[in-house]
Structure formats: C-alpha cells, structure tokens
Design goal:
This protein has about 180 residues and is an alpha/beta fold. The protein has one domain: 3-Layer(aba) Sandwich (Rossmann fold), CATH 3.40.50. About 50% of the residues lie in helices and about 10% in strands. It is globular and about 55 Å long. Pathway: Amino-acid metabolism; Siderophore biosynthesis. Keywords: NAD, Oxidoreductase. This is Dehydrogenase/reductase SDR family member 6.
Length: about 180
C-alpha cells in the first residue's frame, strides 16, 4: 500500500502555479482547480456510492500547508485550490460521518521531490532558489515524500479509525 500511496502523491504534487492573483490567467486558474480540486471531487463522487453501500470507507485527500493554513507569497491559485480541498474534506466528513465514512486530508509543507528539484532548476538562479526554500525550513531540512506517504498509510489504517474531518499538517513547523 505504501508504494501506491507514494506514487499517487508524487503525481498530484507536480503542479504549482507561481505568482499572485494578477499573474494568474484564467487558464492557469482552471488548470490548477481541475488538477487539485475537481479531480478529488470526481474521485470522491465515484467511490462514495460503493462506500455507502458497504457502510464503510476512508478518503484521504491531498491539500497543503499553503492553503487556509498559511498564506504563501506567489502561491495564490495553488493556495486557493488547496484551501478548497480542505473544505471539500470537511464537508464530506460532516455529510457522511454517520454512514461509516471517514474523510481526512494531508497538508504537507515543502517536500523534497523530483518535481520541486525541477522547479528549482528552472529558476534563473537555482542556487539561490534552493537557499530560499531551505531558509524557510525550521527543521533545517525538507520533508521527504516517504514521510508524507507514511502519514497517508496511518490515515488509511485501522489505527486512525476515530479520525475524520481533519487536516493533518506535516510541515516541520513551517506554519509556525
């Protein structure tokens, strides 16, 4: 299960629009909302009927600390989409808690992934971009994708049977 969670998470985490609301074209907005929110809406809507039939289910959505949790410079559309994921998660949890369905979301901070490394290398000064990312890491390192996957495995397990409607922050204290 760990490897499946890890691969899905890597795919979802690849798209991050850089800029303010004034830098965001409608196509950027639509693309980001489709990738980060609509995809989760469609997946939840597709699987909920079977979960309801079984009176059991567990949904784990991927949000971000860059959302309603923390404002981040030049992440307007991304943060807005991830805040919507938190709202979607809480709504599903509230609507279906009495029907045996749990719904939570994971909110990572900066995660060291090939996608992040590629975005850093695409900057005019990759060395400075890396230093800027590291400067905001209060623990002195970035989160690993494996650490995020371990949290997802916990949320998918019976050990978290009493957990629903929550955002699970894994950011090394970045939001503080």
């Amino acid at each position: 299960m760990f490897s499946i969670v890890f691969r899905v998470w890597q795919l979802v985490y690849r798209f991050v629009h850089h800029g303010t609301i004034l830098d965001c074209e409608e196509a950027d907005w639509d693309f980001t909302m489709n990738v980060n929110v609509r995809s989760m809406y469609l997946m939840c809507k597709a699987f909920l009927p079977k979960m309801l039939e079984k009176k059991s289910g567990n949904i784990i959505n991927m949000a971000s600390v860059a959302s309603s949790i923390k404002g981040v410079v030049n992440r307007c559309v991304y943060s807005t989409s991830k805040a919507a994921v938190i709202g979607l998660t809480k709504s599903i949890a509230a609507d279906y808690i009495e029907k045996g369905i749990r719904c939570n979301c994971v909110c990572p901070g900066t995660v060291d992934t090939p996608s992040l490394r590629a975005r850093i290398q695409a900057q005019p000064d990759p060395e400075q971009a890396y230093k800027d990312f590291m400067a905001r890491q209060k623990t002195g390192r970035m989160c690993t994708a494996e650490e995020v996957a371990h949290l997802c495995v916990y949320l998918a397990s019976d050990e978290s049977a009493y957990v629903t409607g929550t955002e699970h922050i894994i950011d090394g204290g970045w939001r503080l």
